Structure formats: structure tokens, C-alpha cells
Amino acid sequence: MNKPLGKGLAALIVDRPKIFPKQGLNIEYIDVAHIKSNTYQPRENFSQEPLDELAASIKEKGILQPLMLRKTDKGYELIAGERRLRAAKMLKIAQVPAIIKDADNKDSLVLSIIENVQRQQLNAIEEAHAFKRLINDFGLSQEDVGKSVGKDRSTVANTLRLLNLSQEIQDQVSKGKISMGHARALLGLADTKDQLEFFEKILKSALSVRELEVLIQESPKRQRASRVQPSKHKAKDPHVAAVEEQLQHKIGTKIRINANKKNKGTITIEFYNLEDLERIVDILKK
Length: 286
What we know:
The chain has 286 residues and is of the alpha/beta class. Among the domains are: 111 residues, Conserved hypothetical protein from pyrococcus furiosus pfu- 392566-001, ParB domain (Alpha-Beta Complex); 51 residues, no CATH class. The chain is 50% helix and 14% strand. It has a five-stranded mixed beta sheet. Strands 1-2 form a two-stranded antiparallel sheet. The protein starts with 6 loop residues before the first helix and ends with a helix.
């Protein structure tokens, strides 16, 4: 065996626990050369600097979270852990710890989305493309997508609407130049030229989402024809809905906030199994 690259890697490569201590899952050590990237990887951008930092961490401490793979006729295909796999290749690590899942193409995409959402590694546009792929390639409804990834149907619908923006604005959302809140506000403008005009105002004046919403609300260019018909159910307070969505993005699961007129209420957090519950508890303890 080649000399290990660091103390953490020595422990990783030589001492091979059959059980991952935290999750109690069976771990196999798979040759990196036998793993191909995920065909359904939802993440589109991988910045080099964070990847270098991850490689440095792995060199020091080892791979603390196993990759998730599925078996193929020619070896293994990655489901989740693209950054860890890339970092391992950078360090010329021969084998990596992995959990082998029995997953079809749809499951592979769903699991990859969930893992990236839980780690907050997908931007809003990447999420939108992933949701669209689940709908177009696998025939899922928006409701089905929401159930699969632990989000409300309305959240899925609002995320998909971002793909109605011009490509230039989508690119800026992906790069973090403007927030999802800014992007959703721009959807109130029907014409692409108007969207770009207000987009320039965001950059020039460093407009907050609220300031942008007020400007669009007062603008004659505001989209009026496509107003949503009144719902039979009482609409949720927009501030409560915004907090609900923020929590769902942070924790990576479906969350319900029910507030009454006295500003009291409850928060309901869903989990899908004991491992998911443990993950959520770990996040809340931080």
C-alpha cells in the first residue's frame, strides 16, 4: 500500500470500520477508479476554492461522511458526494468509504437533490432545473416533487417559476449576485426588458427585496394580467411563509408554521426516518 497522505487518511485507509459509527450503516471501501460521476447530478457549479478547502480537510481528518453510490454493470455510479469524490481524486486517494444504495434513475436524482438541499449546496436555479427534470423525465407532479424532497408544492412551484426569468438574470441568481427573493419579485414583471431594467436597479442601488417589491408595485409595468385567483383558504401571512421557507432550506425538510392572531402558534418539523431525525437534531443543536 502507498504511504498515506496524512494522519486522517491513514486512519481512513488502514482502519476500516465495517459500520459508520454515527449512522450505524454498513460501509464499503470502493476504488475511486471504479466510480463514475452522477448522470443526474443537480449541482451545476463547483467552485475551486471550497474544493481546495475540502481537500485540505480530508487530508487532515479523512472522509468523515461516506459517499452514496449505486451499482452499475461497469462498476459504480455516484448518487451523492460529488465534492468528496473530486477532492479524493485531487489527493490521489485510491479508495473511498461508501454506502451502496439500490436506486433507479429517479431515486438517484431525488437522493442527490435531498443531500444537496440538506447541505445547502444548491442555488435556487439549480434546484429549479432539478425539479423540472423530475417532472419532465420521470413524470412527477409538483406535489410528487414536494413530497420527494420534503418541500411544499407551493415552494416547488415558486422555485420552478424562476426559470421564466431571462437567462442573464438566472445566471446572476446562480452566482449569488441577487437573492431568490429579488428574483421572485422580478417575476412580477411580464416583459424580459422590464425585468432586466429593474435588475440593473438592484445592482446600481443595492436594493433590498422589500424596496424592489415596492418599486415594482408602484410601476405601471407591473404584471397584472396573471394575478392568481383568490383562494378558498385564508392565505398565510407572507412574513410567516417567508420564515417557513427559510427554515425548510436550512433544515432540508418540510416545516409548518401555524400562527394565530395573538402571534402564538406551533412549528411542525417532519422527518422521514430515525437517521433524518438525528440529522435534524444535530442542526438544531448548533
